[in-house]
Design brief:
This protein is an alpha+beta fold. 13% of the residues lie in helices and 31% in strands. 34% of the residues are buried.
Length: 398
């Protein structure tokens, strides 16, 4: 049986928005790969609207050959593999398990503005950002979003354009905003970056935007993906199904629960939750594009319904081979039982005294959705941050 390993492939641009039709394996030049992070809704005290990914790769330029030295420098280097430009080159990181099965764990684009060349030691550190980073590259063309368009119509107007579809796939069937509200002043989005405009539209529609493994643009609710749950067990499992290395950062989720939402003077709040957890206010910054008071009320009511009740959060670490297929917002369960240990005391001879290592119990029928992934290719582990599903207390059983 082979050992676990990874390979890194690079596909540079040949000209503007046109990629070379084959990839180059650059694994031999990799000195180090940092943690690969993928997250949505991951910042404490925040409600995320965008899934984003990033990783840094340190590469060695000194190959021992004058013809290929400097091959990871930018296009100004004569031996560079980036003949047109380094920015936006596609980088794929592929995990290879012990049975030689391959899984792409990351596919992104070089952000040259954040990449650095060290001429002293001959290394290049590339910052690779998920393909949603394209939305930071281009401005919204004036007039793209007309007054009175719904959020679904607005998304089609700005996403179904060559500057986006040359890199990503747009399909109207994948655009399913939670609230298909009317945008009263689309001109407020003119000349913003795609990212800034999409942030507002995602907030107004109560949705998240993700790029899937096939480069499809997905707009959906924050609900879990509806998959058969991935199931995780700690060492306390009586059937020996342990697949968790550790569990950390367990909390009650109050940091991401808000009980007072506002759009200008339109508000939605819950008195009982304010009394229980004190005032936790959140402004939904869409008052410039949504002016209809009824629509504003629908939006604040939506957020109050979805983000007012605290939901448990936790982070587990396991082997990549256990969780390599898990996507953001996938449904999981964590069956965490007390672990019985024994210890020797002066009074326990000839038997050691039993004691419980952990007293916290997480029931295996509670559903969680993945809101963050962090892959470490040094230890071949993956950390998954999860949030309990549901909107109300006690509605998260699966």
């Amino acid at each position: 049986m082979a050992r676990e390993q990874y390979k890194v492939l690079c596909t540079p641009l040949e000209k503007d928005r046109v990629y070379r039709d084959f990839s180059t394996d650059i694994t031999d030049g990799v000195e180090n790969i940092g943690d690969i992070t993928m997250q949505v809704d991951d910042g404490d005290f925040d409600i995320g609207v965008f899934a984003f990914e990033d990783v840094q790769i340190r590469l060695i330029n000194d190959t021992g050959s004058i013809k290929t030295n400097g091959k990871f420098y930018d296009s100004n280097s004569p031996s560079s593999i980036f003949k047109y430009k380094r920015d936006l080159a596609i980088i794929e990181i592929i995990y290879i398990d012990k049975n030689s099965n391959e899984t792409t764990v990351f596919s992104g684009l070089v952000n040259d503005a954040l990449s650095k060349d060290n001429l002293e030691d001959g290394t290049t550190t590339l910052t690779i950002i998920g393909k949603s980073s394209l939305f930071n590259k281009y401005p919204i063309i004036g007039g793209s979003v007309g007054d009175g368009m719904t959020t679904r119509q607005a998304l089609k107007s700005i996403l179904d354009r060559p500057i986006i579809t040359d890199y990503l796939n747009y399909d109207a069937n994948n655009i399913n905003p939670s609230i298909d509200t009317i945008i009263n002043f689309g001109s407020e989005l003119d000349n913003l970056s795609y990212k800034a405009a999409l942030d507002k539209i995602m907030l107004a529609s109560g949705s998240v935007l993700l790029i899937d493994d096939n480069d499809n643009i997905i707009v959906k609710s924050r609900d879990d993906n509806g998959n058969e749950p991935y199931r995780f067990y700690n060492a306390g499992d009586p059937l020996g199904r342990e697949n968790i290395i550790n569990l950390v950062n367990f909390n009650n989720g109050v940091q991401r629960a808000f009980n007072f939402f506002e759009i200008d003077k339109t508000v939605s709040y819950n008195d009982s939750l304010i009394n229980a957890f004190s005032l936790r206010k959140k402004k939904i910054d869409v008052d410039d594009i949504i002016t209809d008071l009824t629509n504003r009320q629908s939006i604040t009511d939506f957020y109050l319904e979805n983000f007012s009740v605290p939901k448990q959060e936790l982070e587990i670490t396991c082997l990549i081979e256990v969780a390599k297929d898990i996507d953001l917002l996938d449904l999981c369960t964590v069956d965490y039982k007390p672990i019985l240990r024994s210890k020797e005391t002066p009074f326990s001879f000839p038997y050691n005294m039993p004691y419980i290592l952990n007293k916290r119990v997480i029931q295996g029928n509670i559903g969680f959705k993945v809101i963050s992934k962090k892959i470490n290719l040094e230890s071949y582990t993956i950390s998954l941050k999860m949030r309990e599903i549901g909107k109300l207390a006690g509605d998260s059983e699966v």
